[in-house]
Amino acid sequence: MITKWSISVPGSTANLGPGFDSIGLALGLYLTLEVTLQDNWEFEHRSDHLPVKFTVEDHLVYKVATETAERYSVQLPACKVVMESELPLARGLGSSASAIVAGIEIANQVCNLQLSIEDRCRLASKIEGHPDNAAASVYGGLTIASTLPNGHLEMINDRDVDAAFAVFIPNVELKTEEARKVLPSNYDKAYAVHASANANMLTASLLIKDYERAGIFMEHDLFHEPFRANLIPNYHEIRQTAKDAGAYGTAISGAGPTVISLLSKDRIDAFVEKMKPLFPNYDIKAVHVDTKGIQVTTA
């Protein structure tokens, strides 16, 4: 009988500009969990990026694992969960989505649900409220997804992303619900058509690997960035400085406040070294694209 599991979930960036609530990209920053069966529930956080104070009952991973077990009418056994995270909270790097994916996987493993990857992605997207971050954390690579009116999730997954990314992570939080409050409740028809065309061009450029053109459309979002820009420290300065240094494009990562730049692989290291002294209040790092998605090993 298996009593211990190791789970690794990649973080993610969402939108890449106009791909609002639809496009996700898995990043090489990880939430890792060591899960062991025991008599009582216990969580141990071993990372500065995880809360110091929490209760088991309010822990997102526990709540999602419990909800998943209830959904499939099985009893969830108690576990000790040791967690480490490279994902700062409320920074637009998919920390909540990775926790949701992890919670589903705990229930999947300890209850032997044998959920398919499609099942896990569908459930994570439903709990998260949209498929961008969740799909990327489950599948890895680039994901483009939409939920149809009947609830069916349709998705395209491309794990062959031949580009590099740099993230600018500020030492401030911006919760998604706060970032959504500044968005308009509706858009004028002509405005929405233009915004949709830009999203279409971003998607097509990414899929044909025309990253220079993708970068252009990363910077032509009309759905959310014009309204969130003032919430992001140094947003306009970072975009212009990054472009001057060779970035194809720069956009808000998810709801922010992290900003992400798209570059060719041969320029990424020099780019990061050039940006660090210019924005000393940011943690600036190169991040690779995770191509595996969630990974589980057993002891």
In words, what does this structure look like?
Helices cover 34% and strands 27% of the residues. A hairpin with a 5-residue loop joins strand 5 and strand 6 (153-158). The longest helix has 19 residues, at 189-207. The chain folds into two domains: 4-158 and 290-298, 2-Layer Sandwich (Ribosomal Protein S5, domain 2); 164-287, Alpha-Beta Plaits (2-Layer Sandwich), CATH 3.30.70. The chain has helices at residues 60-71, 95-110, 117-128, 132-139, 176-181, 189-207, 211-218, 225-228, 235-244, 268-275, and strands at residues 4-15, 19-37, 42-45, 79-85, 142-147, 153-158, 164-170, 249-252, 259-263, 282-287, 295-298. With 299 residues, the protein is α+β, with helices and mostly antiparallel strands. The model has no long low-confidence stretch (mean pLDDT 96). Helix 2 packs across helix 3, helix 3 (117-128) packs antiparallel against helix 4 (132-139) and helix 6 runs antiparallel to helix 7 (211-218). The strands form two sheets. Strands 1, 2, 3, 4, 5, 6 and 11 form a seven-stranded mixed sheet that branches. A four-stranded antiparallel sheet has the order 8-9-7-10. It catalyses: L-homoserine + ATP = O-phospho-L-homoserine + ADP + H(+). ATP binds at residues 88-98.
